[in-house]
Amino acid sequence: MTENELKFHLEEYKLLRGEIAFTTKLLYDTFFWATLASGLIAAWLLTNSERTGQLPSYAARVAFFIPFCVSILACGGFYHFHSVILNVARYLRRLEAKVAEPSLGWEAAQRADESASIARISKVRFGFGWTALIGADFLFGLLVG
């Protein structure tokens, strides 16, 4: 590998690590905004029962499932961002294997210690969070609507 190729890959590595950091922030933001939107819509529906009562019965029932739909769509976006991070991390591991010392590098360290893997911890934590949010929204639509 020439010196110019090495410089290129180092800059590429820095930019891709920045992309992972940005996309990770998008993960947290997506969950936050989905929770907020779901709560706001549910609160509006509950406090405006005289307006929703004027709707045909099927429309009123469907309206109470709007938070559920918002959560499902946001969850899809969340897992898209998650897959983007995994794809970039896979490439960075290959790049580290080619350029860095063996077993050094953030991606290699994460790969070696699966129990402390950020992806694994996030998957469990956010998996529980999304399940709770979507389940609560579904129950809200079912019980209130």
Distance between the termini: 64 Å
* Order of secondary-structure elements: HHHHHH
Uncertain runs: none
Number of helices: 6
- The overall pLDDT average reads 83
> How can the largest sheet be summarized?
none
Topology:
Elements: H1 3-47, H2 49-52, H3 57-63, H4 66-99, H5 106-112, H6 118-144
Helix pairs in contact: 1-4, 1-6, 4-6
Describe it.
The chain has helices at residues 3-47, 49-52, 57-63, 66-99, 106-112, 118-144. It is an all-alpha fold and 145 residues long.
Notable traits:
single chain; 145 residues; mainly alpha; 6 helices; 0% strand; elongated
Question: Could you provide a short overview of the structure?
Answer:
This protein has six helices and no strands. With 145 residues, it is mainly alpha-helical. Helix 1 (3-47) packs parallel to helix 6.
